[in-house]
Amino acid sequence: MTQEVHAIKRKNRLALAAAVAVVAVGTAVGVRLADNTTPSLAQSAATEHRAKPVRIEVFAPERGANAGANGFGWFVDMEVDFLGMNLKQAGFSGLQLTGPAGHNNVPPFPGLFSPGQDDRLPGLVVLTSTTIGSNVNPAFSGPGTNLANLFNLTGITNRDNKETELWDTWIVGAAIAGKDVDTTLTVAVVDDLNHDGVFNDAPNVVPDLNHDGRIDAQDLELLGVASNIVTVPFHINSAPAEP
Ligand SMILES: [Ca+2]
Ligand SMILES: [Ca+2]
Ligand SMILES: [Ca+2]
Protein backbone atom coordinates (compact mmCIF):
# COMPACT_ATOMS: atom_id res chain seq x y z
CA MET A 1 0.00 0.00 0.00
CA THR A 2 1.33 3.43 -0.87
CA GLN A 3 2.17 6.13 1.61
CA GLU A 4 -0.62 8.20 -0.02
CA VAL A 5 -3.20 5.57 0.90
CA HIS A 6 -1.77 5.38 4.40
CA ALA A 7 -2.02 9.17 4.64
CA ILE A 8 -5.67 9.08 3.51
CA LYS A 9 -6.45 6.32 6.00
CA ARG A 10 -4.71 8.28 8.74
CA LYS A 11 -6.72 11.40 7.82
CA ASN A 12 -9.95 9.38 7.93
CA ARG A 13 -8.96 7.92 11.27
CA LEU A 14 -8.28 11.36 12.74
CA ALA A 15 -11.65 12.63 11.46
CA LEU A 16 -13.36 9.60 13.00
CA ALA A 17 -11.53 10.10 16.30
CA ALA A 18 -12.61 13.76 16.35
CA ALA A 19 -16.23 12.73 15.66
CA VAL A 20 -16.12 10.13 18.43
CA ALA A 21 -14.67 12.71 20.83
CA VAL A 22 -17.51 15.14 19.98
CA VAL A 23 -20.12 12.43 20.59
CA ALA A 24 -18.49 11.46 23.88
CA VAL A 25 -18.36 15.08 25.09
CA GLY A 26 -21.98 15.66 23.99
CA THR A 27 -23.12 12.56 25.86
CA ALA A 28 -21.31 13.54 29.05
CA VAL A 29 -22.76 17.08 28.91
CA GLY A 30 -26.24 15.63 28.27
CA VAL A 31 -25.99 13.45 31.37
CA ARG A 32 -24.95 16.40 33.52
CA LEU A 33 -27.81 18.56 32.19
CA ALA A 34 -30.32 15.78 32.75
CA ASP A 35 -29.34 15.20 36.35
CA ASN A 36 -26.76 17.45 37.92
CA THR A 37 -27.56 16.19 41.40
CA THR A 38 -25.93 12.78 40.80
CA PRO A 39 -22.35 13.38 39.73
CA SER A 40 -21.50 9.74 40.33
CA LEU A 41 -23.88 8.74 37.51
CA ALA A 42 -22.33 11.33 35.22
CA GLN A 43 -18.90 10.02 36.13
CA SER A 44 -19.85 6.43 35.38
CA ALA A 45 -21.36 7.48 32.03
CA ALA A 46 -18.14 9.26 31.18
CA THR A 47 -16.17 6.16 32.16
CA GLU A 48 -18.31 4.00 29.86
CA HIS A 49 -17.61 6.31 26.94
CA ARG A 50 -13.90 6.61 27.64
CA ALA A 51 -11.91 5.15 24.78
CA LYS A 52 -9.92 1.98 25.25
CA PRO A 53 -6.24 2.70 26.00
CA VAL A 54 -5.08 0.93 22.83
CA ARG A 55 -6.28 1.61 19.27
CA ILE A 56 -5.69 -0.82 16.41
CA GLU A 57 -6.04 0.04 12.73
CA VAL A 58 -5.67 -2.78 10.18
CA PHE A 59 -4.56 -1.66 6.70
CA ALA A 60 -4.45 -5.14 5.14
CA PRO A 61 -6.26 -7.30 4.38
CA GLU A 62 -9.12 -5.06 3.30
CA ARG A 63 -12.70 -6.22 3.85
CA GLY A 64 -13.83 -8.50 1.03
CA ALA A 65 -10.38 -8.71 -0.57
CA ASN A 66 -9.34 -11.79 -2.55
CA ALA A 67 -5.81 -12.00 -1.16
CA GLY A 68 -2.73 -14.08 -1.87
CA ALA A 69 -1.90 -16.95 -4.21
CA ASN A 70 -1.89 -20.66 -3.44
CA GLY A 71 -3.18 -19.69 0.02
CA PHE A 72 -0.21 -17.54 0.96
CA GLY A 73 1.47 -14.26 0.05
CA TRP A 74 -1.31 -12.24 1.73
CA PHE A 75 -0.51 -9.53 4.25
CA VAL A 76 -1.60 -8.48 7.67
CA ASP A 77 -0.46 -4.90 8.15
CA MET A 78 -1.53 -2.74 11.07
CA GLU A 79 -0.72 0.06 13.43
CA VAL A 80 -1.23 -0.21 17.18
CA ASP A 81 -1.52 3.01 19.19
CA PHE A 82 -0.85 2.78 22.93
CA LEU A 83 -2.41 6.00 24.20
CA GLY A 84 -0.50 7.81 26.94
CA MET A 85 1.96 4.93 27.25
CA ASN A 86 5.67 4.46 26.73
CA LEU A 87 7.34 1.53 24.96
CA LYS A 88 7.72 -0.47 28.16
CA GLN A 89 4.04 -0.16 29.09
CA ALA A 90 3.14 -1.19 25.52
CA GLY A 91 5.09 -4.41 26.10
CA PHE A 92 7.46 -3.61 23.23
CA SER A 93 10.72 -5.50 23.67
CA GLY A 94 12.63 -4.47 20.54
CA LEU A 95 12.61 -3.87 16.80
CA GLN A 96 11.91 -6.99 14.78
CA LEU A 97 12.81 -8.25 11.30
CA THR A 98 12.29 -12.00 11.27
CA GLY A 99 10.83 -14.95 9.41
CA PRO A 100 11.12 -18.70 8.87
CA ALA A 101 14.29 -20.83 8.72
CA GLY A 102 17.43 -18.71 8.26
CA HIS A 103 15.53 -15.46 8.93
CA ASN A 104 14.55 -16.52 12.46
CA ASN A 105 16.06 -14.47 15.31
CA VAL A 106 19.10 -13.02 13.56
CA PRO A 107 20.62 -9.50 13.55
CA PRO A 108 20.12 -6.65 12.97
CA PHE A 109 16.60 -6.86 14.46
CA PRO A 110 16.24 -10.37 15.93
CA GLY A 111 12.82 -11.69 16.85
CA LEU A 112 11.37 -15.14 17.38
CA PHE A 113 9.16 -16.66 14.65
CA SER A 114 6.55 -19.32 15.42
CA PRO A 115 2.83 -19.55 16.19
CA GLY A 116 1.93 -18.14 19.60
CA GLN A 117 2.54 -14.98 21.63
CA ASP A 118 4.93 -12.52 19.96
CA ASP A 119 8.17 -11.89 21.86
CA ARG A 120 8.22 -8.27 20.56
CA LEU A 121 4.54 -7.28 21.03
CA PRO A 122 3.43 -9.72 23.73
CA GLY A 123 -0.03 -8.19 24.25
CA LEU A 124 -1.15 -8.74 20.66
CA VAL A 125 -3.60 -11.43 19.55
CA VAL A 126 -4.08 -12.20 15.85
CA LEU A 127 -6.53 -14.92 14.81
CA THR A 128 -8.08 -16.24 11.63
CA SER A 129 -11.29 -18.25 11.70
CA THR A 130 -9.77 -20.92 9.44
CA THR A 131 -6.30 -21.43 10.97
CA ILE A 132 -5.11 -25.00 10.49
CA GLY A 133 -5.05 -27.49 13.36
CA SER A 134 -2.44 -29.81 14.78
CA ASN A 135 -3.64 -32.55 12.42
CA VAL A 136 -2.08 -30.50 9.59
CA ASN A 137 0.87 -28.97 11.51
CA PRO A 138 1.60 -29.72 15.18
CA ALA A 139 2.65 -26.09 15.81
CA PHE A 140 -0.93 -24.88 15.18
CA SER A 141 -4.09 -25.32 17.26
CA GLY A 142 -6.89 -24.27 14.90
CA PRO A 143 -8.72 -20.90 14.96
CA GLY A 144 -7.61 -20.16 18.56
CA THR A 145 -3.93 -20.10 17.55
CA ASN A 146 -2.41 -16.70 18.27
CA LEU A 147 -0.55 -15.87 15.04
CA ALA A 148 1.15 -12.72 16.38
CA ASN A 149 4.61 -14.32 16.61
CA LEU A 150 4.57 -14.93 12.85
CA PHE A 151 4.83 -11.20 12.14
CA ASN A 152 7.97 -10.22 10.23
CA LEU A 153 8.42 -6.51 10.78
CA THR A 154 7.84 -4.47 13.93
CA GLY A 155 8.91 -0.84 14.35
CA ILE A 156 8.21 2.44 16.08
CA THR A 157 6.24 4.96 14.03
CA ASN A 158 5.46 7.63 16.63
CA ARG A 159 6.48 8.49 20.17
CA ASP A 160 5.14 11.58 21.89
CA ASN A 161 3.35 12.52 25.08
CA LYS A 162 0.03 11.30 23.63
CA GLU A 163 0.93 7.85 22.34
CA THR A 164 3.39 5.16 21.42
CA GLU A 165 2.55 4.03 17.89
CA LEU A 166 3.93 0.74 16.54
CA TRP A 167 3.51 -0.76 13.07
CA ASP A 168 3.45 -4.50 12.62
CA THR A 169 3.50 -6.39 9.31
CA TRP A 170 3.27 -10.02 8.21
CA ILE A 171 3.60 -11.56 4.76
CA VAL A 172 2.02 -14.96 5.16
CA GLY A 173 4.47 -17.57 3.88
CA ALA A 174 2.34 -20.74 3.92
CA ALA A 175 -1.32 -21.66 3.64
CA ILE A 176 -1.79 -21.65 7.41
CA ALA A 177 -5.44 -20.52 7.10
CA GLY A 178 -6.38 -22.64 4.10
CA LYS A 179 -6.87 -21.64 0.48
CA ASP A 180 -9.91 -20.78 -1.61
CA VAL A 181 -11.70 -20.12 1.66
CA ASP A 182 -13.65 -17.29 3.26
CA THR A 183 -12.01 -16.37 6.53
CA THR A 184 -12.14 -13.65 9.17
CA LEU A 185 -9.11 -11.94 10.65
CA THR A 186 -9.56 -10.89 14.29
CA VAL A 187 -7.04 -8.63 16.04
CA ALA A 188 -6.87 -7.14 19.56
CA VAL A 189 -4.52 -6.26 22.40
CA VAL A 190 -5.30 -8.24 25.54
CA ASP A 191 -5.81 -6.50 28.89
CA ASP A 192 -3.04 -6.32 31.48
CA LEU A 193 -4.32 -9.57 32.98
CA ASN A 194 -1.45 -10.03 35.46
CA HIS A 195 -1.56 -6.36 36.59
CA ASP A 196 2.17 -5.71 36.15
CA GLY A 197 1.48 -2.46 34.28
CA VAL A 198 2.57 -3.91 30.93
CA PHE A 199 0.46 -5.15 28.01
CA ASN A 200 2.23 -8.52 27.81
CA ASP A 201 -0.55 -11.02 28.48
CA ALA A 202 -1.63 -12.43 25.11
CA PRO A 203 -2.10 -16.21 25.22
CA ASN A 204 -0.50 -18.66 22.79
CA VAL A 205 -3.96 -20.08 22.13
CA VAL A 206 -7.29 -18.34 22.77
CA PRO A 207 -9.78 -20.80 24.32
CA ASP A 208 -13.46 -21.08 23.37
CA LEU A 209 -14.49 -19.26 26.54
CA ASN A 210 -18.22 -19.09 25.76
CA HIS A 211 -18.30 -22.72 24.56
CA ASP A 212 -20.15 -21.93 21.31
CA GLY A 213 -17.80 -23.99 19.14
CA ARG A 214 -16.13 -20.94 17.59
CA ILE A 215 -13.19 -18.81 18.68
CA ASP A 216 -13.80 -15.19 17.81
CA ALA A 217 -14.24 -11.65 19.12
CA GLN A 218 -16.72 -12.81 21.78
CA ASP A 219 -14.06 -15.01 23.37
CA LEU A 220 -11.60 -12.10 23.32
CA GLU A 221 -14.20 -9.91 25.08
CA LEU A 222 -14.50 -12.58 27.78
CA LEU A 223 -10.73 -12.87 28.06
CA GLY A 224 -10.45 -9.08 28.42
CA VAL A 225 -9.15 -6.61 25.84
CA ALA A 226 -7.40 -3.24 26.14
CA SER A 227 -8.17 -2.27 22.54
CA ASN A 228 -10.90 -2.26 19.96
CA ILE A 229 -11.35 -5.70 18.38
CA VAL A 230 -10.84 -5.50 14.63
CA THR A 231 -12.55 -8.14 12.46
CA VAL A 232 -11.91 -8.30 8.71
CA PRO A 233 -13.76 -10.84 6.55
CA PHE A 234 -11.86 -11.65 3.35
CA HIS A 235 -11.08 -14.49 0.96
CA ILE A 236 -7.82 -16.39 0.62
CA ASN A 237 -7.02 -16.99 -3.04
CA SER A 238 -5.94 -20.42 -4.25
CA ALA A 239 -4.81 -19.66 -7.79
CA PRO A 240 -1.08 -19.86 -8.45
CA ALA A 241 0.95 -16.68 -8.68
CA GLU A 242 2.50 -17.74 -11.97
CA PRO A 243 0.52 -17.20 -15.20
CA1 LIG B 1 8.32 -12.49 17.09
CA1 LIG C 1 0.75 -7.57 32.09
CA1 LIG D 1 -16.49 -18.98 21.35
Rg to the nearest angstrom? 19 Å
Q: Provide the β-strand percentage band.
A: 15-25%
Low-confidence stretches: 16-39
Oligomer: single chain
Structural write-up:
This protein is an alpha+beta fold. The protein is built from 4 helices and 9 strands. It has helices spanning 3-34, 39-49, 87-90, 217-223, and strands at 54-60, 66-67, 75-83, 96-97, 124-128, 153-159, 163-171, 181-189, 230-236. Strands 1-3-7-6-4 form a 5-stranded antiparallel beta sheet. It has a 4-stranded mixed beta sheet with strand order 2-9-8-5, with no helix packed on it. Strand 6 and strand 7 (163-171) form a beta hairpin. Helix 1 (3-34) packs antiparallel against helix 2. It is globular. Residues 16-39 have low confidence and may be disordered. One calcium ion is lined by residues 96, 98, 111-113, 118-120, 149.
Protein traits:
single chain; 243 residues; alpha+beta; five-stranded antiparallel beta sheet; four-stranded mixed beta sheet; 4 helices; 22% helix; binds calcium ion
Give the arrangement of secondary structure elements.
Elements: H1 3-34, H2 39-49, E1 54-60, E2 66-67, E3 75-83, H3 87-90, E4 96-97, E5 124-128, E6 153-159, E7 163-171, E8 181-189, H4 217-223, E9 230-236
Parallel strand pairs: 2-9
Antiparallel strand pairs: 1-3, 3-7, 4-6, 5-8, 6-7, 8-9
Helix pairs in contact: 1-2
Bound molecules: calcium ion (3 copies).
